[in-house]
Amino acid sequence: MNVIFEERPSLHGYLIGIASLDAPGSLNALSLPMIDALQDRLQAWADDPRVACVLLRGNGSKAFCAGGDVVQLAKRCLENPGETPELAQRFFAHEYRLDHYLHTFPKPLICWAHGHVLGGGMGLLQGAGIRIVTTSSRLAMPEISIGLFPDVGGSHFLSRLPGKLGLFFGLTASPMNATDALDLDLADRFLLDTQQDALIDGLIQLNWRDQADLQLHSLLKALAHQASGELPPAQWLPRRKRIDALLDQASLPLSWNALAALQNDDDALLAKAAKTMLGGCPLTGHLVWEQIRRARHLSLAQVFQMEYGMSLTCCRHPEFAEGVRARLIDKDHAPRWHWPDVAAVRAHIVDAHFAQPAGEHPLARLG
């Protein structure tokens, strides 16, 4: 199942639960068995009075988690075009249920998000009570490149970023470093990649019986103080004014064209963002625009319910399977989009992604 679970005894009779994603060859991409194993163990730890705290991390130096394992999903979609594979129904329902559960976990839940933190990895990170980023952290929602959309709660956290930054990140898949994540309230603490052992040692030594919250805060604050000199320069807040002006548009096609004009810009970061968007899926651009518009007025549970319907519709449409084929299966990096022109995507195609599935919604009982 590619997840390792440990229970480290503390000095005062409690246990520290450690869940380690263990698929470094795929950058710890989440498979359905990994998702189910995490759900089961986290629920067991929540119910176990001996477990005081949980640390969620990824093995390997390159990534905490580079997203969901979408290759198998896309292959099923390619085998049965126009249909929703049963695997997709289970995968997205279980993944979104896990992400929502993390947001409601009743004990301190620390996520160590080093290296690549993409897509499904962002869903895990944003659900954690204490979100740690490191020197190597690179956070992004890259779904535009594979014809999906920023899911796993992306509708919620992107819609709550300042100005037009949520729309920008959804359209361009631009990576954020640790300082960006802190600036945008997508992380809580910055630590060095080399401080993970010190964190675990500190958790083991805490007296979880007495003022545990205060002690945990002091531990994290002290470690963060030691690391503060290594914070990277901010990338995106200094560019927010320009991004807001560019994306102050009345429609997605106008926003798309405004960003496209940056592909030869003197600002290398913005030029790269524009080129990534232009290689991405125009239908995804429309979904990003609409999901952010709708999510501002939705609860977290309603966001996951909306995204579930969107995901199943993406599996029925050709763009998702084609995007994964081009980027991750054949790796020719030349997706042949069904709707290659952003202006040609009709409103009824976009609206169809927001229809709810028939019958009882599998996420209807989210709190």
UniProtKB/TrEMBL annotation:
It is an enzyme of class 3 (hydrolase). InterPro entries: ClpP/crotonase-like_dom_sf, ECH_dom, HIBYL-CoA-H. One of its GO terms (molecular function) is 3-hydroxyisobutyryl-CoA hydrolase activity. Its EC number is 3.1.2.4. GO terms for cellular component: cytosol. GO terms for biological process: L-valine catabolic process. It comes from the Bacteria. It catalyses: 3-hydroxy-2-methylpropanoyl-CoA + H2O = 3-hydroxy-2-methylpropanoate + CoA + H(+). Pfam families: ECH_2. Keywords: Hydrolase. Residues 16-354 form the Enoyl-CoA hydratase/isomerase domain. This is 3-hydroxyisobutyryl-CoA hydrolase. It comes from Phytopseudomonas seleniipraecipitans.
